[in-house]
Amino acid sequence: MICLRKLGLSFALLIACCITAAHAEKADQDKPVILEAEKVSVNDVQQVYELDGQVLLTKGSILITGEKGNIKVDPEGYEYVDVQGNPESTASFRQRREGPANEFMQGRGQTVIYNAKTELLTLTGDASLKRLHNMQMLDQLRGWKIDYDDVQQSYKVSPPANAKAEDLPLARAILSPRRKATLEK
């Protein structure tokens, strides 16, 4: 457990984990995006999709839920997804990882932002992120904002930009020993 409460405004926790060579499932890139919500607004010219009410986005093994969201598709076909929760429930993200069977990244926060081109996931607002293998937690992070870079295989936990040293949120990481995690796969 890592407790970082009094490191000042420039506080940032960067954990570059030596995770085994497992990345986001590459087959997801070629899958269609399936959108479900109480209300969906589509602008095909600008490639912008707005979702409202019980949002469910599925693309291959990627599953994103929330209360409101929007998706922008760039000219190359990559999606930029921004989904928000509401006061009663958070937004969530889940994706199967390439490589070992039954390994997932799963996260929650008030906001879930996913950039399919850079494979960068950002969770904000009482955020948590877990790496699971056979539904057992290998790694877990908690904090105000979590960035997960699947390409670089790194996590970053940071406080709000306007946080004061005395009211910084607690950042916490639980990391499984790499040797043990690797042997159990």
Layout of helices and strands:
Layout: E1 13-16, E2 34-36, E3 39-43, E4 48-59, E5 62-73, E6 79-84, E7 91-96, E8 103-109, E9 111-115, E10 120-133, E11 136-149, E12 154-158, E13 172-175, H1 178-184
Antiparallel strand pairs: 1-12, 2-4, 3-4, 4-5, 5-6, 5-7, 6-9, 7-8, 8-10, 9-10, 10-11, 11-12, 11-13
Characterize the structure shown.
This protein has a single domain, classed as Lipopolysaccharide (LPS) transport protein A like domain (lipopolysaccharide transport protein A fold, Sandwich). It is 4% helix and 52% strand. The protein has a 6-stranded antiparallel beta barrel with strand order 5-6-9-10-8-7. The protein contains 1 helix and 13 strands. The radius of gyration is 17 Å and the shape is globular. With 185 residues, the protein is mainly β.
Percentage of β-strand residues: over 45%
Principal-axis shape: globular
Q: In the CATH scheme, what's the topology name? A: lipopolysaccharide transport protein A fold
- Number of helical stretches of at least 4 residues: 1
Looking at CATH, the homologous superfamily is Lipopolysaccharide (LPS) transport protein A like domain
Largest sheet composition = 6 strands, antiparallel, barrel
- The assigned structural class equals mainly beta
CATH architecture: Sandwich
Helix percent band: under 10%
What is the H/E string? EEEEEEEEEEEEEH
- The figure for the number of domains is 1
> Can you tell me the CATH class?
Mainly Beta
Largest beta sheet: strand ordering = 5-6-9-10-8-7
Radius of gyration: 17 Å
Low-confidence stretches: 1-22, 181-185
Mean pLDDT: 81
Count of β-strands: 13
Query: How far is the N terminus from the C terminus?
Result: 23 Å
